[in-house]
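ingest -> validate -> predict -> emit
validate: passed (alphabet ok, no gaps, 171 aa)
predict: started
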Amino acid sequence: MAEINNYQLTRNIEVEIGDLRVNFLGDTTFLSAKEACDTPIHIHAVHEFQYIHSGTLQEVINEENLLTANEGELLFIPPNVMHRNAEGNCRRLVLAFTIKRIKDKGAGNNFSEYGYYCELLGKMQDAMIIRSDAIVHCIKNLMELPDLPQNGHKKILYLTMLFIRMVECIE
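emit:
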């Protein structure tokens, strides 16, 4: 894969899966760990994951646990978990998402995607390292996609696949 510098994946894209709306957001350019090491401990209401493109990142979780993510791995941080970058020499992609229920969608259907994914994501109380070739494949497809208007639908499909693959790792 060609070298990618400051690749802008997306700032805010909504994806619908049945009665579930996933909103991907944030500044998702590649960052070096050194750029973000001065980040104070913080907490937020979004699900966050950091894909380590190259190198290694150490993240302090709840001021007591240290997680180390290596190249090709994802650091998943659920909402309301205190965290900060400890140190590292890496390039990473930071992406966050929220989920909401779409009212009046799926009425009469016995299955709720929103309920299903809320239950799975609810099991995630602690930060964790995820290693998944399927997730890496989705991220690489997104990164290699030229930022052109005609590729908007492809971004939505790749983000949908990324969300599903990530949550599958929790099951």
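The mean pLDDT is 80.
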